[in-house]
Each structure stands twice: as structure tokens, then as C-alpha cells.
Amino acid sequence: MAEGSEQQRRYKEFLDLLPLTLSLAGLPESEHGRYYNEEQIETRLFAVRHAYRAARSLVREVVQKP
């Protein structure tokens, strides 16, 4: 598989898992007109990364079971 198509596949996988990922992360939306500071963004990134790994693991587990 070419590197470009592998990257495309991973990107599509990420987008497919995004709703589940955000749901698992459980992060509230920011209030209109208020922005997160750098530390808050880093904390949210950590939560999203962790949730993405969990979503990916869950989907793989469900798909592999008979």
C-alpha cells in the first residue's frame, strides 16, 4: 500500500471515529466568545488522544468478535 493511501486510510479512520472519540472524551464546548488558555487546550488534547485510543480499541474489539 502506498504511503499516501495509508495516510488517507488513517485520516478516514480518524474522521469515522471522531464522534465516538468526542463523546468518550466528555469535554464541554466553550462558551461563546470565551477561549481556552494554553494549559486548558493541552488538557483537552490529552483527553481527546486518550479517548481516540479507547474508541479505536473498542471498534477493533467489536469488529473482531464473531
Can you offer a commentary on this structure?
With 66 residues, the protein is mostly helical. Helix content is 76%, strand content 0%. It has two helices and no strands. The longest helix is centred in the C-terminal third of the chain and has 27 residues. It is extended and about 45 Å long. The mean pLDDT is 93.
Order of helices and strands: HH
- Shape assignment: extended
Uncertain stretches of 5 or more adjacent residues: none
Strand content: under 5%
Helix content: over 70%
Structural class: mainly alpha
Mean pLDDT: 93
Number of helices: 2
Distance between the termini: 27 Å
Biggest sheet features: none
Number of strands: 0
Q: Which key features would you list for this structure?
A:
single chain; 66 residues; mainly alpha; 2 helices; 76% helix; 0% strand; extended
Describe how the helices and strands are arranged.
Elements: H1 3-25, H2 38-64
Question: Would you kindly provide a brief summary of this structure?
Answer:
This protein has about 70 residues and is mainly alpha-helical.
